[in-house]
């Protein structure tokens, strides 16, 4: 596999691909920062040669074979992904995303958004479609939940991160979401990842709990190969023999991803450890390990939560985490951007 990149006209590159590889199989085009990156199959050297005339650099077998378009060499300072409004993930600022596991009611969501803002969050999370392990558990409010997210987003100014669980509901979810979350159970659902990427919305791709970092980067490659550069990785714990935590939060993955990929990576300590008293230390450790942000479950009344109440922080716990985080980030030369509430 060859990767060609440089400043170039995308139409010219696409025309050359079409001329040399009419099926387009094994090719991809993605704009990463100021550069256009083109993946060229090994058996099409004449395409590489033609592209070389319009692109400034040609690299062969670049970097990590798992993640070609996510290779750090393409953006050595890391990519910055927009979340909606002025919020971003990656770069110097540290992004906090917070909210309930599931959208339950207008009031619960509005209270969660106020809590999120008070703790310095730049985006609101909340599932309307929930991929539950048991079919008898609360499955989310569906389209009603999406409408609640839109209302609270407009009132609070916080962009919305919400999960899409299948291709059937993708376009409905994409109408309301600022960022499409692909959960751990769909982490290798490649047709879903491709279709989500084609909406043009930023993708928050959780790590499959049974996936290696290499498999995770290859899943991200499916989104990038659709021409959508806005992919955020989210470490949320992997399955191990350890049972004192819900999963095993693999913070070494943060360092590995930072070394190999330009994609921003955030950590979800809530699903990783599953117990509220363990979230603060792991959140601080994630920041120290170099994560670009956190996604944290919070709830105005965790005891009454319809989903994952054990891992939702109360307001006091959330504000305590936020202030401890500011201290850790200050040592690292990073900061929490201040949110800009709209009439909140
Ligand atoms: C979630 O964030 O609500 C969720 C279901 O997470 P995961 O896919 O990591 O289990
Ligand atoms: Mn959850």
Bound molecules: phosphoenolpyruvate, manganese (II) ion
Low-confidence stretches: 339-344
Largest sheet properties: 8 strands, parallel, barrel
If you average the pLDDT, what whole number results? 93
Number of strands: 14
Coarse shape? globular
The structural class is alpha/beta
* Rg for CA atoms: 20 Å
Percentage of residues in helical conformation? 25-40%
Please, how many helices? 11
Order of helices and strands: EHEEHEEEEHEHEHEHEHEHEHHEH
Distance between the termini: 51 Å
Strand content: 15-25%
- Which strands sit side by side, in order, in the main sheet? 7-8-9-10-11-12-13-14
Question: Can you tell me about this structure?
Answer:
The chain is α/β, with parallel strands linked by helices and 344 residues long. Helix content is 34%, strand content 17%. It is built from eleven helices and 14 strands. The strands form three sheets. It has an eight-stranded parallel β-barrel, surrounded by seven helices. The chain has a four-stranded antiparallel beta sheet with strand order 2-3-1-4, with helices on one face. A two-stranded antiparallel sheet has the order 5-6. The longest helix has 18 residues, at 315-332. Phosphoenolpyruvate binds at residues 101, 127, 131, 163, 183-184, 206, 236, 268, 271.
């Amino acid at each position: 596999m060859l990767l060609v990149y440089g400043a170039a006209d995308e139409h010219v590159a696409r025309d050359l691909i079409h001329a040399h590889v009419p099926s387009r199989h094994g090719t991809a085009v993605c704009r990463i920062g100021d550069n256009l990156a083109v993946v060229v199959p090994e058996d099409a050297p004449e395409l590489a040669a033609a592209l070389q005339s319009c692109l400034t650099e040609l690299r062969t077998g670049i970097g990590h074979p798992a993640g070609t378009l996510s290779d750090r060499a393409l953006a050595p300072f890391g990519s910055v992904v927009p979340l909606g409004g002025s919020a971003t993930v990656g770069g110097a600022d540290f992004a906090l995303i917070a909210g309930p596991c599931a959208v339950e009611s207008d009031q619960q969501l509005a209270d969660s958004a106020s809590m999120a803002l008070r703790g310095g969050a730049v985006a609101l999370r909340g599932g309307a479609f929930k991929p539950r392990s048991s079919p008898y558990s609360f499955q989310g409010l569906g389209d009603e939940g999406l409408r609640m997210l839109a209302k609270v987003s407009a009132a609070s100014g916080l962009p919305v991160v919400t999960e899409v669980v299948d291709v059937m509901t993708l376009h409905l979810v994409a109408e309301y979401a600022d960022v499409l979350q692909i959960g751990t159970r769909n982490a290798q659902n490649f047709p879903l990842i491709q279709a989500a990427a084609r909406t043009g919305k930023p993708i928050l791709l959780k790590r499959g709990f049974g996936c290696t970092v290499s498999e995770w980067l290859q899943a991200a490659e499916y989104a990038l190969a659709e021409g959508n550069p806005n992919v955020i990785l989210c470490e949320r714990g992997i399955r191990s023999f350890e049972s004192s935590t819900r999963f095993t939060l693999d913070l070494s993955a943060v360092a590995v991803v930072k070394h190999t990929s330009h994609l921003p990576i955030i950590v979800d300590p809530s699903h990783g450890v599953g117990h509220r008293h363990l979230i603060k230390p792991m959140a601080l450790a994630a920041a120290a390990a170099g994560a670009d942000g956190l996604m944290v479950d919070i709830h105005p009344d965790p005891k009454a939560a319809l989903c994952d109440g054990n891992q939702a922080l109360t307001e006091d716990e959330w504000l305590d985490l936020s202030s401890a985080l500011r201290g850790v980030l200050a040592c690292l030369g990073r900061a929490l951007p201040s949110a800009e509430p709209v009439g909140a």
